[in-house]
Amino acid sequence: MNHRNVLPGELRTALAEVRQVYLDLAQRPIQRNCLRRTECCQFKLTGRSPYLTKGEALVAAKAFRATGRKSLPENADGSCPMLQQESGSCLIYEDRPFGCRTHFCAPAGGPIPRREVLDLIRRLEDVDRTLNGSGPRPLQNAVADALGEIVRAIDR
Ligand code: SF4
Known about the structure:
Radius of gyration: 15 Å
Distance between the termini: 25 Å
Largest sheet: 2 strands, antiparallel
Helix content: 40-55%
Bound molecules: iron/sulfur cluster
Number of helices: 6
Strand content: under 5%
Order of helices and strands: HHEHHHEH
Shape: globular
Number of domains: 1
Structural class: mainly alpha
Number of strands: 2
Strand order of the largest sheet: 1-2
């Protein structure tokens, strides 16, 4: 497929829209209370991991890069690469992906029904298309590629 280049201004607008989606989600009258127990970050244990659109992956990768790290670690316990092993906390909590916010964690209230956030999902999909993404992808792959893009852009 032939993609045109994304202009810097378009990229900024796209990432701002992803963050706005996160803010709009937080305004919804949906009872959820993430206690940062990080049970949903244990991918190997749960057998599930979030899928990210490209905009979400870039927002997460930028936050991860801001911690001074350049590449994703592979945690021996199969947990999310952004779960810091020493502290047991998410390195990018404020910029965590949509799936981490609508998560499947039972103590936080269980998954939010898709129909309640479908409009927000559509907005993330629109951003994905703007950024020449290929739809939602597993967190590890999506963020690793986004991180590569960011590091290459910095090194250019
Ligand atoms: S990004 Fe953060 S909140 Fe989401 S699964 Fe990874 S460590 Fe957990």
